[in-house]
Amino acid sequence: MGNTLGTIHQAAIEQLKPCSDSARLDADIILAFALDIPRTRFITQADTPISDSQFDTIQDLISKRQSGLPVSYVIGTQGFWDLELIVNEHTLIPRPETEQLVEFALAIFPKDKQISVIDLGTGTGAIAIAIAKSRPNWHVVACEKSKEALKVARENSEHYQLKNIELIESDWFSAVDSDLSFDLIISNPPYISEQDPHLTQGDVKFEPITALSAGPDGLDDICQIVRSAKEYLNEHGWLIVEHGYDQGEAVKALFAKHGYHTIQQGLDLNGHTRMTYGQR
What is the DSSP letter of 37? Predict the structure, then answer.
């Protein structure tokens, strides 16, 4: 008897157990992608035959995951908000924690108010695209210094056919017109210390270091953003930044030092302070 969906699924789980703490989920995602089927089929149609070419494709993807490559890079996409985004080795993989920045951004302004937004260091475009798609009447600028990452963001934006988003190549505000101003500046910048051992572990070691690390204490880029953002914020405009779980007090102090008011912070699902926001 040849390979079936059920036997291949179970074999994939066993293959991935030594290298993954989420072997079943990884196997589900890889097989669903390779065969272009919903994950419910693994149970309801377990006897479906798998061709030799399908088997070879699955094994190639499994081998990539066994090498340590993140599942998102293996299949080339990652879910975020209500989006399915292209990702590759030039972009950070969007995390669920970052969805909280989008959630807050959508909550602080009336839905029908026309506002201007800039997403600094957009990467895949996750934050900017989620906001632009959710608020078609908002004008969103997304900037990114990496040409390769900006290409991915542009592909993602074009996929959703968004007319209210503008992508520019810029190292933070370096290429942003000084005459422009925004009601909301939002960013998930690099914030990991350059000495942090996590940079050489797990999925993170495959992601671009420039999207992860920012100086000895991880605060170099956040300092620059907090300092510069006031020049581009409209009166009563908001700055929102994501940061590390242990950087809350330091980032709050930075906001206060540079004269922001109504400074607040948000927790992630584990109860850690992961974003700070304040008004000009």
Answer: -
CA–CA gap between residue 99 and residue 212 (Å, rounded) = 17
Residue 43: domain span: 5-75
CATH of the domain at 116: 3.40.50.150
pLDDT at residue 217, rounded to an integer? 74
Identify the CA nearest to 28 among candidates 68, 67, 61: 61
Examine the domain organization and report whether 97 and 190 are in the same domain. Answer: yes
Q: Give the CA-trace dihedral at 140, 169, 85, 19, to 10 degrees.
A: -140
> pTM of the predicted model, to two decimals?
0.89
Query: What's the pLDDT tens digit per position in 226-268?
Result: 999 999 999 999 999 999 898 999 999 999 999 999 999 998 8
Number of domains in the chain: 2
DSSP collapsed to 3 states, 70-135: CHHHHHCEEEECCEEEECCCCCCCCCHHHHHHHHHHHHHCCCCCCCEEEEECCCCCHHHHHHHHHC
Single out the residue in 75, 103, 120 at which a domain terminates.
Answer: 75
